[in-house]
Amino acid sequence: MAASIVEHGEDAFRKLFKFYKRRKPPPDFSDVIDFSKGLRNEKVFSTELSPAAVSESDARLAGLQPVRDWKAFGLQGYPGFIFISNPFLPGTQQYWVKQCMKVYPQKPNVCNLDMHMSASETGHIWEDSTQLMRSKVSGKREPKTLLEKLRWVTLGYHYNWDTKTYSAEQHTPFPADLHALSNHVAAACGFPGFTAEAGILNYYRSDSSLGIHVDESELDHSRPLLSFSFGQSAVFLLGGARREDPGTAMFMHSGDIMVMSGPSRLLYHAVPRIVAAPAGAPLPPPLLQGPDQDTPTDCLAQRVQEGDWAVCARYIQTSRINMTVRQVLGPGQTFPSVTQRRAESANAQTYHEVESEEDEDSNAKKRRNGSDSSVKS
């Protein structure tokens, strides 16, 4: 079992990461906490939220159940960590998957494809991909579409992967729908007035992982980090303030939300594995239906058109999408000068991009040829 493999020691977190990432033999998942099963683990306890902070009508308009019905949990040893087990209304998750695939990758937002393609080539990712994705034959190896090549998209204040900083110069309007959703979740967790200023969307294929890192580039760490998961399940590792600290493994299923705040805001964490469903298996149940017929017409999570969902469903059948939302600036804060940013970035932790086994093979070849300049954990 994983718990007996790694307790303490030098870089214990990395050892746990490798344990869950390995393919042969596959890891034992018996120590992975599954919050969908409630209080079955001795580390898990119920946590109180603030139902009065979000009215039932506001929650419903954002596609969420009333806060009083949310199943929220904490973890022993991780103060400030809150896990909310799928608080979305039936059918509304389809909307957020569609936004992450069709809307949020659009310009002026930034994605990984912009790093090596021109703006004209990445200006219509959805339109240039949908026809080919609809016509793909299951099981047949075919060239990847731009949608299938997405690894990350940034929103609002765009994270600079080279300097590991945000700046006032690199900014576009943050999506209003995701801002409203984030504001309600933060308020329910005791953070009224949360302002969603930056987002990083990660796109995971079945062989993808997210390296060990700490999210510390925001100037204000008093505000929480929100994480929304859709699609296939994943193993998430939450560690300590040091890499030597042991980690705790947990499943993230479609619709689950994590909130990292207070002492847990700056802890090491990672995603070593996507636990994809077997070939031919149906989508996760929360993604099988659209919104109820009585969903308010002004609800953010409106019914997705059948043609659009056919493309999304084909993608999410073997993939996972994660949205992380954060407030960058505290009240009265401003960004440091360029000189200050350069000095601070030299010591900052990096966000780690989602990497697949195919990417690893490519990067290994670059390293052998002396041409790999990427930062690895």
Textual characterization of the structure:
A hairpin with a 5-residue loop joins strand 2 and strand 3 (81-85). The radius of gyration is 20 Å and the shape is globular. Strands 1-2-3-11-8-13-6-5-4 form a nine-stranded antiparallel sheet, with helices on one face. A five-stranded antiparallel sheet has the order 10-9-12-7-14. Helix content is 24%, strand content 19%. The chain has 377 residues and is of the alpha+beta class. The protein contains ten helices and 14 strands.
Features:
19% strand, 377 residues, disordered N terminus, nine-stranded antiparallel sheet, alpha+beta
Radius of gyration computed on alpha carbons: 20 Å
Strand order of the largest sheet: 1-2-3-11-8-13-6-5-4
Distance between the termini: 24 Å
Strand content: 15-25%
Q: What's the quick description here?
A:
With 377 residues, the chain is of the alpha+beta class. The protein is 24% helix and 19% strand. The protein has a 9-stranded antiparallel sheet with strand order 1-2-3-11-8-13-6-5-4, covered by helices on one side. A 5-stranded antiparallel sheet has the order 10-9-12-7-14.
